[in-house]
Amino acid sequence: MASVIGDGAVEAVRLADRATGESELVACDSLIAALGFTAQLGPLEHWGLDIVERRIVVDSRMATSVPGIFSAGDITEHPAKVRLMLVGFGEAATAVANAAVPLDPSADLFPGHSTDGPPPGAN
What we know:
This protein is an alpha+beta fold and 123 residues long. The chain has one helix at 85-103; strands at residues 3-5, 12-16, 23-27, 51-52, 55-57, 76-77. It folds into 2 domains: 1-29, no CATH class; 42-103, FAD/NAD(P)-binding domain, CATH 3.50.50.60. Helix content is 15%, strand content 16%. The chain has a 3-stranded antiparallel β-sheet with strand order 1-2-3, with no helix packed on it. Strands 4-5-6 form a 3-stranded mixed β-sheet, with no helix packed on it. A hairpin with a 6-residue loop joins strand 1 (3-5) and strand 2.
């Protein structure tokens, strides 16, 4: 999309073909944004991680193919992957919980439910 046309409300959008430079004006009453991006892995491509179609392969613990490296969110790939923002938040919690135990062997993999109340010692 090249531009949104309207004065206080959407009236039309101009769609542009980047390859040809041609554009077309399309009348509309509303616009739904489906935002996304193409991952630029940069230095991550050289870390020895298993990467498939620009996504880091993880297991159910969100662990990568390199011990000690965990990943979450849109940049990951696993068999049950659902590409929604909310899923990414859950994956982040899973990754952090699984990364904590190797860093602190006394840590509990399951930190408890958010409804369990304050952690011991909290006021």
